[in-house]
Amino acid sequence: MPEQLSARCAIVGGGPAGMMLGLLLARAGIEVVVLEKHADFLRDFRGDTIHPSTLELMHELGLLEAFLELPHQEVRVLKAWFGDTELTLADFTHLPTHCRFIALMPQWDFLDFLAREAGRHPAFRLLMQTEATTVMETAGRIVGVHAKTPQGALELRADLVIGADGRHSTVRQAAGLAVEELGAPLDVLWFRLPRFSGDPQDTAIRFGSGALLVLLNRGEYWQAGYGIAKGSMDDIRAKGLPELRRDIAALAPFVRDRVGELDDWDEIKLLTVQVDRLRRWYRQNLLCIGDAAHAMSPVGGVGINLAIQDAVAAANLLTEPLRNRTLTPTHLLRVQRRRELPTRLIQRLQILVQNHVIANVLAGPGRGPLRPPLLLRVIGRLPWFRRLTARLVGIGIRPEHIA
Ligand SMILES: Cc1cc2nc3c(=O)[nH]c(=O)nc-3n(C[C@H](O)[C@H](O)[C@H](O)COP(=O)(O)OP(=O)(O)OC[C@H]3O[C@@H](n4cnc5c(N)ncnc54)[C@H](O)[C@@H]3O)c2cc1C
Questions:
Q1: How far apart are CA 286 and CA 264, in angstroms?
Q2: Which of 320-326's residues contact partners 24+ apart within 8 Å by CB, and which partners?
Q3: DSSP assignment of 228-289, as one string?
Q4: Which residues have any ligand 1 atom within 6 Å of their CB?
Q5: What pLDDT, on the 0 to 100 scale, is given for residue 368?
């Protein structure tokens, strides 16, 4: 017999969207269970950026000071290099927020922090190593989720099931929600390189002919994201590690003395990029948020921001109907309506950059010397433009606030 549990809200996925929503609902006294398939948060989850808008939410929750005590680095301007040409693409120092920077923090520290804070509320429960396998349905209504745990099967009944299980969402697939694919020309190789005392301070993106490299300053090491043409991993493997090391050093010559430490493919993780969105984010008693509703490209590093903003909008709009047990599909539609416009606009911008900057860069050598595209040159020259990009990346469109 499967173990049986019930809660007012079941959240599948303990990523940024799921943990934030879990915290907000539990804080409002709504009984919530978060299911996370992994045993811990100690993994590379794609992206370690905590945006000024998220830091502002921490402030609204009274958690900012404690949060900033965790080890982090502060990115106040975002730079790009095209060969020897340096451009500033975003300047966060003028944002109308308490923190005028992006905090770089390993995502496991961020998720651990949210889990700790949520755990202070008796209404919160987090089940690790618990993987949702499908939804429970009765007469066309979702009534919960089936999950597997190391101890066996689990049936979790809930008034509302939230799919916050990321880009390969089981929940959205099980609920039969239609996905619109928007396409992405790149995948990303994710690895670390040591950081030495004479290294640059800046977090920057470096464009070369046929490749791009993002280096995130994480204090003692660089977290590197190396963009490759979609589907080209087999070719890169076939060419071998020495060639990859040479290409990385060509993009960032100051790491030439340590690329040798990349001596095993196991140290290099392939993160596949996909950009898509659901036409309808909900069914009766079920709602998808974050990447499960709209998988984001890494361009601009904004996916975590959007996931968190979805969680706040969902908490603001659903807490009362969950408390009163008056939830209807109209409440869920309101969440989609609230969040769909910001999502569409940001995805449109990401695709613009993917198609007009990244695809050209990844098309490879033989296209002459690499020159920053006009759009980036204009951004780099005009300070107000750099503030606009900072606003889009750091705050986003129609930011949410804790109700
Ligand atoms: C290469 C790459 C780099 C990126 N870099 C950045 C960046 O720097 N900054 C940024 O803001 N965004 C970045 N993004 C986008 C960002 O990763 C996502 O938009 C963001 O993580 C979405 O958060 P989420 O909570 O919706 O989903 P996720 O972060 O994907 O979390 C989903 C969670 O659900 C769990 N899960 C999955 N299935 C199940 C299941 N069946 N049962 C239980 N649990 C389950 C997973 O283990 C995971 O913990 C990047 C994306 C890629 C591909």
A1: 43
A2: 322/8, 322/9, 322/25, 322/30, 322/159, 322/160, 323/8, 323/28, 323/29, 323/30, 325/159
A3: EETT-HHHHHHH-HHHHHHHHHHH-GGGTTTGGG---GGG-EEEE---EEES--EETTEEE-
A4: 12-18, 35-38, 45-47, 49, 131-132, 164-167, 170, 188, 225, 271, 273, 290-292, 296, 298, 301-305, 307
A5: 46
Q: If you measure from the C-alpha of residue 114 to the centroid of ligand 1, how many angstroms do you get, rounded to a whole number?
A: 15
Q: In whole angstroms, give the CA distance from residue 177 to residue 166.
A: 14
User: Are the C-beta atoms of 339 and 333 separated by less than 8 Å?
Assistant: no
pLDDT of residue 41: 87
| pLDDT value of position 210 | 83
User: Residue with the nearest Cα to atom 45 of ligand 1?
Assistant: 13
Q: How far apart are CA 387 and CA 199, in angstroms?
A: 26
Residue with tokens 């296209």: 367
Rounded Cα gap, residues 327 and 25, in angstroms? 14
* Chain position carrying tokens 């689990």: 154
What's the 26 CA to ligand 1 centre distance in angstroms?
A: 22
- Whole-angstrom distance, CA of residue 287 vs CA of residue 160: 8
Question: How far is the centre of ligand 1, averaged over its atoms, from the C-alpha of 168 (Å)?
Answer: 9
Find, among 98, 40, 110, 97, the residue nearest to 69 by Cα.
110
In the prediction, which pLDDT does 361 show? Answer: 84
Pocket test for ligand 1, best of 21, 45, 287 (most atoms within 8 A of CB): 45
pLDDT beneath 50: ranges in the chain: 366-368
Q: What is the reported pLDDT for 365? A: 65
Distances (CA, A) of 265 to 130, 191, 395: 29, 10, 36
Orientation of helix 16-27 relative to helix 107-119, angle to 10°: 20
Phi, psi of 317 (to 5 degrees): -90, -20
Atom number in ligand 1 closest to CA 131: 42
Closest CA to 389 of 51, 34, 8, 40: 51
CA 129 vs CA 3, 117, 145, 166, 247: distances in Å: 15, 20, 15, 16, 38
Threshold 0.85, pTM exceeds: yes
- 8-state DSSP, 297: P
Maximum alpha-carbon separation in the chain: 66
In the block, residue with structure tokens 């089940």: 127
Residue whose structure tokens are 């995130």: 216
Structure tokens at 305: 């921001």
